[in-house]
Amino acid sequence: MSTVPSDVVRLVDEAELPASARELKTSGDANSEGLLMPHQKQWVSQCLKYPLNIAEKCRRSGITLATAWNDTITAASKKSAGGDNIYYIGDTKEKGLEFIGYCAHFAKAMASAMAQNWNGIEVFLFEDQVVNERGKVIETRQISSYRIRFASGFQIVALSSNPSNIRGLQGIVNIDEAAFHADVQAVIDASLALIIWGGRIRIISTHNGADNPFNQLVKDSLKGLFDFKIFRITFDEVVKNGLYKKVCLVKGLTWSQEAEDKWYRQVRGAYGANKAA
Predict the structure, then answer these.
(1) Which of 48, 205, 216, 236 could connect to 178 by a Cys-Cys bridge, CB 3.0–4.6 Å?
(2) pTM of whole model > 0.70?
């Protein structure tokens, strides 16, 4: 792992990471049972069981965080233990940096030798090839992206923008906040093409309108038109699972039921009748 590939531009400084990644705290090590809330464990379990999954989530549910935890273990594992490459495609560059920041945190916190000898977060140039309907390359461009390479030989890659050739990615692909991508339908269509090559796909998103292609994909999957397994979590369910206690852990606050009730009313007041928020 000491050899740095020629495509590496530089290493990411911790100060560049979003506050959500820098301030991430865990009770115990990264393998602790207390790290994930019940719904996060359920999502991870579903992803391990099925190759095609959709998370129909509320805001601040921790689904992306749980995905990063599971994916760090996967990328750090040998192929014989289920190791694989991980690709993350967010709707913004900041989301990609946040995800890779989560993964870096878990890699450092793992009480296992499998996460040793990694170089940190690399900024590298991902070569993206635009192909036409006949499969011919008509344009090649370089996307500034983030990467963590492990001694297992696998890597976690967070792309800072949508690659044209999603179909060419081999491994586990996470498409986060799919409903908010610039061209939602194109992203969904490209991800479905991965199925041909046996890809494992997680499409994660809050909703962005009834007419959004993400909402239609959820409906079609529930009807059995696609083999995606749907995982749905609401804000009220997340609260019952201990979200405010996680907030207290990160912010250094003392939990009390009175404080949680006040916090809940403030959050609910902000989102009004939107129970899926």
Answers:
(1) 205
(2) yes
